[in-house]
Amino acid sequence: MVSISSIEPLLGFLGTITGLIRAFMSWEQAGPNVTVSALAAGIYEAMITTAAGLIIAIPLYLCYNYFMSRIKVTANELTNHAIQLLEVIAEMNKDGRR
């Protein structure tokens, strides 16, 4: 999950760059006769890939953070229980009980 949420925005940005390259190539080919429609396909590609990358990455990142916080809470609870167990064992050894 972490890999996908980390890589997906980069793939979206890669699409942004390829879309803009495509738009500028169209502009170069059209020269002074450039029109919005000549640039639109590349700009559309750039915007769609950016949006797709963020649409995928944002929920995954939120899930990742949720699960990481749950893991930290559980780890702290386990640590506290382990400390309590060690205290009970130490008390039993101090009193000579086994």
Structure description:
This protein has one domain (about 1-95). It is built from two helices and no strands. The protein has helices at about 1-30, 35-95. The model has no long low-confidence stretch (mean pLDDT about 85). With about 100 residues, it is an all-alpha fold.
List strands and helices in order, with pairings.
Elements: H1 2-30, H2 36-94
Helix pairs in contact: 1-2
Summarize the structure.
By secondary structure, the protein is mainly alpha-helical. Helix content is 90%, strand content 0%.
**What global shape is seen?**
rod-shaped
Q: How many beta-strand runs?
A: 0
- End-to-end span in angstroms? 46 Å
The whole-number mean of residue pLDDT values reads 87
H and E order:
HH
* H/I helix tally: 2
What number of structural domains do the residues give?
1
Structural class call reads: mainly alpha
**Sheet with the most strands?**
none
Q: Could you name the ranges where pLDDT drops below 50 across 5 or more consecutive residues? A: none
Helical fraction: over 70%
Features:
single chain; 98 residues; mainly alpha; 2 helices; 90% helix; 0% strand; rod-shaped
